[in-house]
Amino acid sequence: MPVSLVSPDKNPRAPFIMSYSLNLIALASDADILIQTAQRDKRNLQHRRETLMLRSENSAEDSAAHAAELSAATASLAAANATIASLPEGEKKEEEITKKMELELKIRKLSKSGNKLGTVATIEREYDADQLTRQIDGIDAFISAVTARKAEL
What we know:
By secondary structure, the protein is mostly helical. The protein has one domain (3-7, 17-152). 78% of the residues lie in helices and 5% in strands. It has a two-stranded antiparallel ribbon. The longest helix is centred in the middle third of the chain and has 59 residues, at 28-86. The model has no long low-confidence stretch (mean pLDDT 84).
């Protein structure tokens, strides 16, 4: 008969119900293999979660640096526009127009890449980390159930 597992701490953040045919485990060595496999999977998931969390922390720093760079480029563009307006026709004005075009391109690129560092990306990483936490909770419940079955043998 399958055993149903419910969140071990009844935590509403991590609801899960799983059904396993643990009564099929006849040998303690089979239970050990299942537990070792589950523990390996758990370590891998924990590593992925930690990596995501680190990326989220770094993202906040990167986002601030990105905002500062965008702000500086925007200020430089305003200055370039004022300079161009005050220059007479000639080589110097053409150089300033070229610089202005480069600044506009830089601002477009910074604006486009800003979405990767913004709120949506941060929330997506947090969501992914939460999903990994739920998987880890499920593995913990599985390990507990297999350990209990092993004790019955």
